[in-house]
Amino acid sequence: MIIVDKAILERQAAGKTIKVGIAGAGFMGRAVARQVVNWVPGMEVAVIASRHLEGAVAAYEQAGVVDVERVESPEELEDAVRRGSPAVTDDLLNVCRAEGIDAVIEATATIEMGARVVIEAIEHGRPAVLVNAELDGTVGPILHAHAERAGVVYTNVDGDQPAAELNLYRFVRSIGATPLLCGNIKGLIDHYRTPETQTGFAAEWGIQPYMATSFADGTKISFEQAVVANATGMGVAQRNMRGLRYEGHVDDPEHLEMYDVDELRDLGGIVDYVLGATPGPGIFVLAAYDDPAQQHLLDFYKMGKGPLYCLYTPYHLCHLEVPLTVARALLFQDAAAAPTQGLVVDVVATAKRDLRAGETLDGYGRYTAYGQLENADVAAAERLLPIGIAEGCTLARDVAKDEVLTYDDLALPPDRLCDRLRAEQTRLVVDRVGRRAGAAATDL
Predict the structure, then answer these.
(1) What is the pLDDT of residues 117-140, one digit of tens each?
(2) Which of 60, 108, 128, 340 reaches 20 to 30 Å from 134, CA-CA?
(3) Domain boundaries, the chain
(4) pTM of the full predicted structure?
(5) Cβ proximity of 79 and 47 under 8 Å
Protein backbone atom coordinates (compact mmCIF):
# COMPACT_ATOMS: atom_id res chain seq x y z
CA MET A 1 0.00 0.00 0.00
CA ILE A 2 3.00 2.31 0.33
CA ILE A 3 3.33 2.45 -3.46
CA VAL A 4 -0.41 3.05 -3.87
CA ASP A 5 -0.61 6.11 -1.63
CA LYS A 6 2.31 7.73 -3.48
CA ALA A 7 0.70 7.02 -6.85
CA ILE A 8 -2.55 8.67 -5.78
CA LEU A 9 -0.68 11.78 -4.67
CA GLU A 10 1.17 11.88 -7.98
CA ARG A 11 -2.16 11.79 -9.80
CA GLN A 12 -3.35 14.67 -7.67
CA ALA A 13 -0.21 16.71 -8.38
CA ALA A 14 -0.70 16.11 -12.10
CA GLY A 15 -4.29 17.34 -11.91
CA LYS A 16 -5.68 13.88 -12.69
CA THR A 17 -7.85 13.25 -9.65
CA ILE A 18 -9.41 9.78 -9.67
CA LYS A 19 -13.19 10.11 -10.04
CA VAL A 20 -15.20 7.26 -8.61
CA GLY A 21 -18.86 6.42 -8.87
CA ILE A 22 -20.55 4.58 -6.01
CA ALA A 23 -23.50 2.33 -6.80
CA GLY A 24 -25.43 1.89 -3.58
CA ALA A 25 -25.92 4.20 -0.63
CA GLY A 26 -26.33 1.74 2.21
CA PHE A 27 -24.06 1.19 5.20
CA MET A 28 -20.88 0.59 3.20
CA GLY A 29 -21.67 2.99 0.38
CA ARG A 30 -22.11 5.84 2.86
CA ALA A 31 -18.96 4.92 4.77
CA VAL A 32 -16.83 4.73 1.62
CA ALA A 33 -18.16 8.07 0.39
CA ARG A 34 -17.31 9.73 3.69
CA GLN A 35 -13.82 8.26 3.61
CA VAL A 36 -13.04 9.39 0.08
CA VAL A 37 -14.50 12.88 0.46
CA ASN A 38 -12.69 13.67 3.70
CA TRP A 39 -9.49 11.65 3.85
CA VAL A 40 -8.29 10.53 0.42
CA PRO A 41 -6.35 13.18 -1.51
CA GLY A 42 -6.26 12.63 -5.23
CA MET A 43 -9.66 10.90 -5.34
CA GLU A 44 -13.20 12.24 -5.39
CA VAL A 45 -16.71 10.87 -5.35
CA ALA A 46 -18.19 12.11 -8.62
CA VAL A 47 -21.58 10.42 -8.23
CA ILE A 48 -23.56 8.31 -5.79
CA ALA A 49 -26.42 6.22 -7.15
CA SER A 50 -29.28 4.74 -5.19
CA ARG A 51 -32.70 3.48 -6.22
CA HIS A 52 -33.95 5.77 -3.46
CA LEU A 53 -32.54 9.16 -4.41
CA GLU A 54 -32.79 10.52 -0.89
CA GLY A 55 -30.33 7.83 0.22
CA ALA A 56 -27.70 9.11 -2.22
CA VAL A 57 -28.27 12.69 -1.06
CA ALA A 58 -27.95 11.59 2.57
CA ALA A 59 -24.69 9.78 1.81
CA TYR A 60 -23.18 13.00 0.50
CA GLU A 61 -24.59 14.99 3.41
CA GLN A 62 -23.02 12.59 5.92
CA ALA A 63 -19.71 13.17 4.14
CA GLY A 64 -20.16 16.94 4.51
CA VAL A 65 -21.27 17.65 0.92
CA VAL A 66 -24.61 19.49 0.80
CA ASP A 67 -24.66 20.97 -2.71
CA VAL A 68 -25.35 18.06 -5.05
CA GLU A 69 -26.87 17.86 -8.52
CA ARG A 70 -29.61 15.42 -9.46
CA VAL A 71 -29.05 13.77 -12.85
CA GLU A 72 -31.21 11.40 -14.85
CA SER A 73 -29.02 10.29 -17.76
CA PRO A 74 -25.40 9.45 -18.55
CA GLU A 75 -25.15 12.68 -20.55
CA GLU A 76 -26.32 14.79 -17.60
CA LEU A 77 -23.85 12.97 -15.36
CA GLU A 78 -21.01 13.57 -17.83
CA ASP A 79 -21.80 17.27 -17.78
CA ALA A 80 -21.78 17.34 -13.98
CA VAL A 81 -18.43 15.52 -13.88
CA ARG A 82 -16.90 18.02 -16.33
CA ARG A 83 -18.05 20.88 -14.12
CA GLY A 84 -16.85 19.17 -10.93
CA SER A 85 -20.37 19.09 -9.49
CA PRO A 86 -21.11 16.11 -7.17
CA ALA A 87 -24.09 14.22 -8.58
CA VAL A 88 -26.77 11.80 -7.46
CA THR A 89 -28.96 9.55 -9.58
CA ASP A 90 -31.59 6.88 -9.03
CA ASP A 91 -30.41 4.89 -12.06
CA LEU A 92 -27.42 2.85 -10.88
CA LEU A 93 -26.35 2.07 -14.43
CA ASN A 94 -25.70 5.76 -15.15
CA VAL A 95 -22.62 5.42 -12.94
CA CYS A 96 -21.20 2.85 -15.34
CA ARG A 97 -22.19 4.47 -18.61
CA ALA A 98 -21.04 8.06 -18.13
CA GLU A 99 -17.67 9.18 -19.48
CA GLY A 100 -15.37 10.72 -16.89
CA ILE A 101 -15.95 8.07 -14.21
CA ASP A 102 -12.67 6.25 -13.66
CA ALA A 103 -13.89 3.34 -11.52
CA VAL A 104 -17.17 1.95 -10.20
CA ILE A 105 -17.57 0.90 -6.57
CA GLU A 106 -20.39 -1.65 -6.41
CA ALA A 107 -21.95 -1.39 -2.93
CA THR A 108 -25.52 -2.48 -3.54
CA ALA A 109 -25.41 -5.50 -1.16
CA THR A 110 -27.56 -7.31 -3.73
CA ILE A 111 -27.06 -10.13 -6.21
CA GLU A 112 -29.33 -9.27 -9.14
CA MET A 113 -28.82 -5.50 -9.23
CA GLY A 114 -25.17 -5.84 -8.25
CA ALA A 115 -24.55 -8.17 -11.16
CA ARG A 116 -26.17 -5.69 -13.56
CA VAL A 117 -23.94 -2.91 -12.25
CA VAL A 118 -20.77 -4.97 -12.62
CA ILE A 119 -21.62 -6.19 -16.12
CA GLU A 120 -22.37 -2.63 -17.18
CA ALA A 121 -19.13 -1.32 -15.67
CA ILE A 122 -17.12 -3.99 -17.46
CA GLU A 123 -18.84 -3.33 -20.80
CA HIS A 124 -17.92 0.35 -20.47
CA GLY A 125 -14.30 -0.34 -19.57
CA ARG A 126 -14.50 0.66 -15.91
CA PRO A 127 -12.73 -1.28 -13.15
CA ALA A 128 -15.40 -2.97 -11.03
CA VAL A 129 -14.62 -2.75 -7.31
CA LEU A 130 -17.02 -4.85 -5.23
CA VAL A 131 -17.98 -4.22 -1.61
CA ASN A 132 -20.09 -7.34 -2.01
CA ALA A 133 -18.75 -10.77 -1.08
CA GLU A 134 -22.20 -12.26 -1.68
CA LEU A 135 -22.19 -11.30 -5.34
CA ASP A 136 -18.60 -12.44 -5.78
CA GLY A 137 -19.28 -15.77 -4.09
CA THR A 138 -22.29 -16.41 -6.32
CA VAL A 139 -21.29 -15.32 -9.83
CA GLY A 140 -17.80 -13.90 -9.33
CA PRO A 141 -15.97 -16.38 -11.59
CA ILE A 142 -18.07 -15.55 -14.63
CA LEU A 143 -17.97 -11.80 -13.91
CA HIS A 144 -14.19 -12.08 -13.66
CA ALA A 145 -14.12 -13.91 -16.99
CA HIS A 146 -16.11 -11.08 -18.58
CA ALA A 147 -13.67 -8.55 -17.10
CA GLU A 148 -10.65 -10.47 -18.40
CA ARG A 149 -12.09 -10.50 -21.91
CA ALA A 150 -12.72 -6.75 -21.68
CA GLY A 151 -9.25 -6.04 -20.29
CA VAL A 152 -10.49 -4.41 -17.07
CA VAL A 153 -9.94 -5.25 -13.41
CA TYR A 154 -12.61 -7.02 -11.36
CA THR A 155 -11.89 -7.13 -7.64
CA ASN A 156 -13.28 -7.37 -4.16
CA VAL A 157 -12.02 -4.81 -1.67
CA ASP A 158 -9.11 -4.37 0.67
CA GLY A 159 -10.23 -3.99 4.26
CA ASP A 160 -12.75 -6.83 4.21
CA GLN A 161 -11.62 -10.23 5.44
CA PRO A 162 -11.19 -11.93 2.04
CA ALA A 163 -8.71 -9.41 0.63
CA ALA A 164 -6.98 -9.15 4.02
CA GLU A 165 -6.45 -12.92 3.87
CA LEU A 166 -5.32 -12.75 0.26
CA ASN A 167 -2.85 -9.95 0.93
CA LEU A 168 -1.36 -12.12 3.66
CA TYR A 169 -1.50 -15.19 1.41
CA ARG A 170 0.49 -13.31 -1.25
CA PHE A 171 3.02 -12.19 1.35
CA VAL A 172 3.44 -15.75 2.63
CA ARG A 173 4.09 -17.03 -0.87
CA SER A 174 6.50 -14.17 -1.57
CA ILE A 175 8.76 -15.27 1.31
CA GLY A 176 8.90 -18.85 0.06
CA ALA A 177 6.50 -20.43 2.55
CA THR A 178 3.61 -22.71 1.53
CA PRO A 179 0.15 -21.43 2.54
CA LEU A 180 -1.94 -24.34 3.82
CA LEU A 181 -4.92 -22.65 5.45
CA CYS A 182 -6.50 -19.24 4.98
CA GLY A 183 -8.54 -18.51 8.05
CA ASN A 184 -11.07 -16.11 9.49
CA ILE A 185 -11.63 -15.52 13.21
CA LYS A 186 -15.26 -15.66 14.35
CA GLY A 187 -16.90 -15.09 17.72
CA LEU A 188 -20.35 -16.54 17.01
CA ILE A 189 -22.08 -18.94 14.63
CA ASP A 190 -25.77 -19.78 15.18
CA HIS A 191 -27.46 -20.99 12.01
CA TYR A 192 -30.94 -20.23 13.31
CA ARG A 193 -30.59 -16.51 13.95
CA THR A 194 -33.18 -14.32 12.20
CA PRO A 195 -33.71 -10.58 11.65
CA GLU A 196 -35.84 -10.59 14.79
CA THR A 197 -33.02 -11.91 16.97
CA GLN A 198 -30.53 -9.46 15.41
CA THR A 199 -32.64 -6.29 15.56
CA GLY A 200 -30.81 -4.84 18.57
CA PHE A 201 -27.34 -5.46 17.13
CA ALA A 202 -28.40 -4.01 13.78
CA ALA A 203 -29.81 -0.87 15.38
CA GLU A 204 -26.70 -0.36 17.49
CA TRP A 205 -24.42 -0.33 14.44
CA GLY A 206 -26.72 1.18 11.86
CA ILE A 207 -26.92 -1.83 9.55
CA GLN A 208 -29.85 -3.72 8.08
CA PRO A 209 -31.16 -6.60 10.25
CA TYR A 210 -30.75 -9.07 7.38
CA MET A 211 -27.06 -8.22 7.13
CA ALA A 212 -26.58 -8.63 10.88
CA THR A 213 -28.33 -12.00 10.57
CA SER A 214 -25.98 -13.16 7.82
CA PHE A 215 -23.05 -12.34 10.12
CA ALA A 216 -24.48 -14.51 12.89
CA ASP A 217 -25.95 -17.45 10.99
CA GLY A 218 -22.73 -18.35 9.17
CA THR A 219 -23.73 -17.18 5.71
CA LYS A 220 -21.44 -14.16 5.62
CA ILE A 221 -18.30 -16.06 6.59
CA SER A 222 -19.17 -18.70 3.99
CA PHE A 223 -19.29 -16.03 1.30
CA GLU A 224 -16.10 -14.43 2.57
CA GLN A 225 -14.21 -17.71 2.49
CA ALA A 226 -15.68 -18.50 -0.92
CA VAL A 227 -13.99 -15.36 -2.23
CA VAL A 228 -10.69 -16.61 -0.79
CA ALA A 229 -11.16 -20.13 -2.12
CA ASN A 230 -11.98 -18.99 -5.64
CA ALA A 231 -8.88 -16.79 -5.61
CA THR A 232 -6.45 -19.42 -4.30
CA GLY A 233 -7.81 -22.77 -5.46
CA MET A 234 -8.17 -23.94 -1.86
CA GLY A 235 -11.35 -25.87 -1.08
CA VAL A 236 -12.96 -26.93 2.19
CA ALA A 237 -12.12 -29.99 4.25
CA GLN A 238 -15.82 -30.63 4.80
CA ARG A 239 -19.17 -28.99 4.16
CA ASN A 240 -19.59 -25.82 6.26
CA MET A 241 -15.84 -25.86 7.06
CA ARG A 242 -14.56 -27.27 10.33
CA GLY A 243 -14.70 -24.13 12.41
CA LEU A 244 -12.60 -25.49 15.25
CA ARG A 245 -13.12 -23.81 18.61
CA TYR A 246 -10.05 -22.34 20.29
CA GLU A 247 -10.32 -19.61 22.89
CA GLY A 248 -6.68 -18.54 23.08
CA HIS A 249 -4.61 -16.45 20.70
CA VAL A 250 -4.59 -17.63 17.11
CA ASP A 251 -0.81 -18.06 17.03
CA ASP A 252 -0.63 -20.14 20.22
CA PRO A 253 1.25 -23.44 19.72
CA GLU A 254 -1.83 -25.24 21.09
CA HIS A 255 -3.90 -23.81 18.25
CA LEU A 256 -1.41 -24.92 15.62
CA GLU A 257 -1.34 -28.42 17.08
CA MET A 258 -5.04 -28.78 16.20
CA TYR A 259 -4.10 -29.05 12.51
CA ASP A 260 -2.47 -31.96 10.69
CA VAL A 261 0.15 -30.52 8.32
CA ASP A 262 0.22 -33.61 6.11
CA GLU A 263 -3.55 -33.60 5.78
CA LEU A 264 -3.55 -29.92 4.83
CA ARG A 265 -0.94 -30.66 2.18
CA ASP A 266 -2.93 -33.60 0.82
CA LEU A 267 -6.01 -31.38 0.56
CA GLY A 268 -4.02 -28.77 -1.35
CA GLY A 269 -4.69 -26.20 1.37
CA ILE A 270 -8.10 -25.21 2.72
CA VAL A 271 -10.15 -22.20 3.72
CA ASP A 272 -11.65 -22.33 7.18
CA TYR A 273 -12.31 -20.34 10.34
CA VAL A 274 -11.60 -20.64 14.05
CA LEU A 275 -14.30 -19.91 16.61
CA GLY A 276 -13.62 -17.93 19.77
CA ALA A 277 -9.95 -17.10 19.21
CA THR A 278 -8.28 -13.73 19.54
CA PRO A 279 -7.68 -11.25 17.98
CA GLY A 280 -11.40 -11.25 17.27
CA PRO A 281 -11.57 -9.02 14.19
CA GLY A 282 -8.54 -10.62 12.57
CA ILE A 283 -7.56 -13.10 9.91
CA PHE A 284 -4.69 -15.58 9.64
CA VAL A 285 -2.77 -17.84 7.30
CA LEU A 286 -1.17 -21.10 8.38
CA ALA A 287 1.95 -21.76 6.34
CA ALA A 288 4.70 -24.37 6.26
CA TYR A 289 8.46 -24.29 5.84
CA ASP A 290 10.22 -27.63 5.46
CA ASP A 291 13.80 -26.37 5.32
CA PRO A 292 15.55 -26.95 8.69
CA ALA A 293 17.66 -23.79 8.31
CA GLN A 294 14.56 -21.68 7.75
CA GLN A 295 12.83 -23.36 10.69
CA HIS A 296 15.82 -22.56 12.90
CA LEU A 297 15.74 -18.89 11.88
CA LEU A 298 11.99 -18.65 12.34
CA ASP A 299 12.38 -20.06 15.84
CA PHE A 300 14.95 -17.31 16.45
CA TYR A 301 12.30 -14.81 15.23
CA LYS A 302 9.89 -16.20 17.88
CA MET A 303 7.64 -17.82 15.29
CA GLY A 304 7.89 -21.28 16.84
CA LYS A 305 9.65 -24.47 15.83
CA GLY A 306 7.38 -25.29 12.87
CA PRO A 307 6.81 -26.82 10.46
CA LEU A 308 3.48 -24.95 10.70
CA TYR A 309 3.53 -21.20 11.33
CA CYS A 310 0.76 -18.71 11.93
CA LEU A 311 0.87 -15.27 10.36
CA TYR A 312 -2.03 -13.01 11.21
CA THR A 313 -3.46 -9.54 10.87
CA PRO A 314 -5.32 -8.38 14.00
CA TYR A 315 -7.82 -6.14 12.19
CA HIS A 316 -9.65 -5.46 8.96
CA LEU A 317 -10.63 -1.87 8.28
CA CYS A 318 -13.38 -2.25 5.68
CA HIS A 319 -14.34 1.14 4.22
CA LEU A 320 -11.02 2.76 5.14
CA GLU A 321 -9.15 0.61 2.63
CA VAL A 322 -11.64 0.61 -0.26
CA PRO A 323 -10.00 3.66 -1.92
CA LEU A 324 -6.70 1.78 -1.94
CA THR A 325 -8.39 -1.02 -3.89
CA VAL A 326 -9.63 1.51 -6.45
CA ALA A 327 -6.09 2.82 -6.89
CA ARG A 328 -4.62 -0.70 -7.15
CA ALA A 329 -7.12 -1.57 -9.86
CA LEU A 330 -6.94 1.66 -11.83
CA LEU A 331 -3.26 2.56 -11.57
CA PHE A 332 -1.62 -0.87 -11.31
CA GLN A 333 -4.23 -3.22 -12.83
CA ASP A 334 -3.90 -5.26 -9.63
CA ALA A 335 -6.88 -6.99 -8.02
CA ALA A 336 -7.00 -7.26 -4.25
CA ALA A 337 -9.28 -10.30 -4.50
CA ALA A 338 -10.43 -11.91 -7.73
CA PRO A 339 -11.68 -15.45 -8.51
CA THR A 340 -8.75 -16.30 -10.75
CA GLN A 341 -9.10 -20.04 -10.01
CA GLY A 342 -12.70 -20.21 -11.18
CA LEU A 343 -15.48 -21.80 -9.17
CA VAL A 344 -13.74 -23.77 -6.42
CA VAL A 345 -16.51 -23.64 -3.80
CA ASP A 346 -20.18 -22.68 -3.61
CA VAL A 347 -22.28 -21.25 -0.77
CA VAL A 348 -25.30 -23.57 -0.67
CA ALA A 349 -28.74 -22.82 0.75
CA THR A 350 -29.77 -24.81 3.82
CA ALA A 351 -33.18 -24.74 5.50
CA LYS A 352 -33.31 -22.81 8.79
CA ARG A 353 -36.58 -24.49 9.68
CA ASP A 354 -38.98 -27.01 8.20
CA LEU A 355 -40.14 -25.54 4.92
CA ARG A 356 -43.35 -26.36 3.09
CA ALA A 357 -44.16 -26.82 -0.58
CA GLY A 358 -45.42 -23.55 -2.05
CA GLU A 359 -43.30 -21.34 0.22
CA THR A 360 -41.12 -18.67 -1.37
CA LEU A 361 -37.53 -18.40 -0.17
CA ASP A 362 -36.49 -15.02 1.16
CA GLY A 363 -32.74 -15.05 0.51
CA TYR A 364 -29.71 -14.92 2.78
CA GLY A 365 -29.79 -13.30 6.21
CA ARG A 366 -33.50 -13.78 6.65
CA TYR A 367 -35.90 -16.49 7.85
CA THR A 368 -35.82 -19.48 5.52
CA ALA A 369 -32.20 -20.41 4.79
CA TYR A 370 -28.58 -20.07 5.82
CA GLY A 371 -25.47 -20.64 3.72
CA GLN A 372 -22.85 -23.36 4.02
CA LEU A 373 -19.61 -23.64 2.07
CA GLU A 374 -19.22 -26.71 -0.12
CA ASN A 375 -16.67 -27.75 -2.73
CA ALA A 376 -17.98 -26.86 -6.18
CA ASP A 377 -17.66 -30.36 -7.61
CA VAL A 378 -19.87 -31.76 -4.84
CA ALA A 379 -22.35 -28.92 -5.19
CA ALA A 380 -22.58 -29.51 -8.94
CA ALA A 381 -22.93 -33.28 -8.64
CA GLU A 382 -25.74 -32.93 -6.09
CA ARG A 383 -27.37 -29.95 -7.84
CA LEU A 384 -27.20 -27.89 -4.67
CA LEU A 385 -28.82 -24.47 -4.73
CA PRO A 386 -26.53 -21.46 -4.22
CA ILE A 387 -28.02 -19.25 -1.53
CA GLY A 388 -27.14 -16.19 -3.57
CA ILE A 389 -29.93 -17.02 -6.02
CA ALA A 390 -32.39 -18.47 -3.51
CA GLU A 391 -34.48 -15.33 -3.03
CA GLY A 392 -37.79 -15.58 -4.86
CA CYS A 393 -37.56 -19.31 -5.54
CA THR A 394 -40.75 -21.29 -4.86
CA LEU A 395 -40.53 -24.70 -3.22
CA ALA A 396 -42.02 -27.66 -5.04
CA ARG A 397 -41.78 -29.99 -2.04
CA ASP A 398 -41.38 -29.98 1.73
CA VAL A 399 -37.79 -29.52 2.94
CA ALA A 400 -36.68 -30.48 6.45
CA LYS A 401 -34.72 -28.18 8.74
CA ASP A 402 -30.96 -28.31 8.01
CA GLU A 403 -31.51 -30.02 4.66
CA VAL A 404 -29.53 -28.49 1.82
CA LEU A 405 -31.81 -27.32 -0.96
CA THR A 406 -31.35 -28.42 -4.56
CA TYR A 407 -32.47 -27.11 -7.92
CA ASP A 408 -34.87 -30.05 -8.08
CA ASP A 409 -36.71 -28.78 -5.00
CA LEU A 410 -37.98 -25.52 -6.48
CA ALA A 411 -38.89 -23.26 -9.34
CA LEU A 412 -36.71 -20.26 -10.22
CA PRO A 413 -38.23 -16.82 -10.82
CA PRO A 414 -38.38 -15.89 -14.52
CA ASP A 415 -35.87 -13.85 -16.48
CA ARG A 416 -33.12 -13.17 -13.93
CA LEU A 417 -29.62 -12.12 -14.88
CA CYS A 418 -28.14 -14.06 -11.97
CA ASP A 419 -29.56 -17.33 -13.34
CA ARG A 420 -28.18 -16.63 -16.80
CA LEU A 421 -24.79 -15.84 -15.29
CA ARG A 422 -24.86 -19.05 -13.25
CA ALA A 423 -25.63 -21.05 -16.39
CA GLU A 424 -22.77 -19.36 -18.23
CA GLN A 425 -20.51 -19.92 -15.23
CA THR A 426 -21.39 -23.62 -15.21
CA ARG A 427 -20.49 -23.92 -18.89
CA LEU A 428 -17.19 -22.14 -18.17
CA VAL A 429 -16.38 -24.59 -15.37
CA VAL A 430 -17.23 -27.60 -17.57
CA ASP A 431 -15.06 -26.24 -20.39
CA ARG A 432 -12.12 -25.69 -18.03
CA VAL A 433 -12.44 -29.18 -16.57
CA GLY A 434 -12.58 -30.63 -20.08
CA ARG A 435 -9.46 -28.72 -21.14
CA ARG A 436 -7.59 -29.88 -18.04
CA ALA A 437 -8.64 -33.49 -18.65
CA GLY A 438 -7.54 -33.20 -22.27
CA ALA A 439 -4.19 -31.79 -21.25
CA ALA A 440 -3.70 -34.61 -18.73
CA ALA A 441 -4.53 -37.20 -21.37
CA THR A 442 -2.05 -35.61 -23.75
CA ASP A 443 0.63 -35.74 -21.06
CA LEU A 444 0.03 -39.46 -20.73
Answers:
(1) 999 999 999 999 999 999 999 999
(2) 60
(3) 2-159+320-332, 161-315, 345-432
(4) 0.95
(5) no
